[in-house]
Specification:
The complex is a heterodimer of chains A (110) and B (117). Chain A is mainly β. Chain A has strands spanning 9-12, 18-23, 35-40, 47-50, 64-69, 72-77, 86-93, 99-101, 105-109. In chain A, strands 1, 3, 4, 7, 8 and 9 form a 6-stranded mixed β-sheet that branches. In chain A, strand 7 and strand 8 (99-101) form a beta hairpin. The N and C termini of chain B lie far apart (39 Å). The chains are: A mainly beta (110), B mainly beta (117).
Chain lengths: 110, 117
């Protein structure tokens, strides 16, 4: 049960796009279309931003999008805004009713 | 308002026990699988445990298997986590989360568990 791999940090200027990767294995990301992404501001609970690889819950701006290729999933934030600065975590179903999270990526809006 | 509220955290000595609760409001708990996820200070999220809708099926991360027990009382709209044999490395904020489509849709605000002598 190793954690998924995310870059520790990412950054972009307002209005730009940034992509955060999340790498797993064929037993988790590569084996299921159940990748989700979470936004967490300091001291707050995580918030679901993307589920089932690319679906957005109601209320999440369409600036947030998700994709997957092989064992790697990606979250893209377009048109960066100051309020997007937060920690982002990926998660994947890993079979046998087990889940994995990535180590988290701190997104800085320059 | 859809809400999950955790309680029961605190300071406990190594080897001690705690029981966390997670009360749901604004939705029916029995419609969701439920999870516990923890976050050590300054660290990332780690999935801990899951229980299915009727409480009959549970799974655990290897790090807590045999020490933690997840349960639910749908009549009380409440989820529980019994923590036994606590270790320093169990120190974390514990979040409960409601799951649909194998994602964590609804989160509580978390309750802090500190294991220290």
């Amino acid at each position: 049960q190793s954690a998924l791999t995310q870059p520790p940090s990412a950054s972009g200027s307002p209005g730009q796009s940034v992509t955060i990767s999340c790498t797993g294995t064929s037993s988790d990301i590569g084996g299921y279309n159940y990748v989700s992404w979470y936004q967490q501001h300091p001291g707050k609970a995580p918030k679901l931003m993307i589920y089932e690889v690319s679906k957005r819950p109601s209320g999440v701006p369409d600036r947030f999008s998700g994709s997957k290729s092989g064992n790697t999933a990606s979250l893209t934030v377009s048109g960066l805004q100051a309020e997007d600065e937060a920690d982002y975590y990926c998660s994947s179903y890993a079979g046998n009713s087990n889940w994995l999270f990535g180590g988290g990526t701190k997104l800085t809006v320059l | 308002e859809v809400q999950l509220v955790e309680s029961g955290g605190g300071l406990v000595q190594p080897g001690g026990s705690l029981r966390l609760s997670c009360a749901a409001s604004g939705f029916t708990l029995s419609d969701y699988w439920m999870h516990w996820v923890r976050q050590a200070p300054g660290k990332g999220l780690v999935w801990v445990s899951r229980v299915n809708k009727d409480g009959r099926s549970t799974t655990y991360a290897d790090s807590v298997k045999g020490r933690f027990t997840i349960s639910r009382d749908n009549a009380k709209n409440t989820l529980y986590l019994q923590l036994n044999g606590l270790r320093a490395e169990d120190t974390a904020v514990y979040f409960c989360a409601a799951s649909d489509s194998l994602a964590f849709d609804i989160w509580g605000q978390g309750t802090m568990v500190t294991v220290s002598s």
